[in-house]
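Q: What structure does this chain adopt?
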Amino acid sequence: MNKKTEELKNMWFEKGCNYWTSGNYDLADECFDEALALDKNDPLSWYNKGTSLLHNEQYNDAIFCFKNSLELDSNQLASWGNITMSYGMIGDDKSALECADRGLDINNTDPDLWKFRGIALRNLGKESEAKFSFSQEEKFRKMENQETASKEEKPWWRQIVSKEEKSTPVYGKKKKSIRSILGEIPNTEEAKSELFLEFARTEDARIKEAEAALHGRLSEDDREKAYKWSAYYRGLIERDSEN
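A:
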């Protein structure tokens, strides 16, 4: 790449970072596209484009970008974390688990990756393994809080990478607040838990929409059978919870 092309790419890259920081993820995405048109082998441009799409809840497209970024540089803790989250948001818990494990190969003390791993395992019905992951999350969360109590660090979670950080192989430390789909939130366990609850509420709404569509296609006889079995299943769940 000649100097002029590199300067132009960097201009689009920085412009995208500025748009991203101001919360204009659509324009940020367009700028990172321009940067990638000049250099499709830049893992940071793929990563930043992925975070823009992730904030816009375009999870499949974000996964595509994080995959490209990781193919070019597999040592990015941030990309493994974000692709794990993206897979979780589309219900692909098997892929989420695999990516969480890859991220933990880089840093096995990251509490967020342990949490993502636990959620994936729980959704896959592997409760004992999920409990272990959540215990690891709790352990390393306490250590992290102790380490960061007296200093402010930069988060990896859903963040872009600026020009000054291009030499950093793993983009991943914490500070007092983080940017999310819901905007700026405190970088605390409580705030993150609330964010995950919001994700869950969104997924529940989507599931209800799908159930309503399915209900509309059922015959009266099939609906009656479905009501009977759902009531029976709810009874089993309630009895199990009481025990």
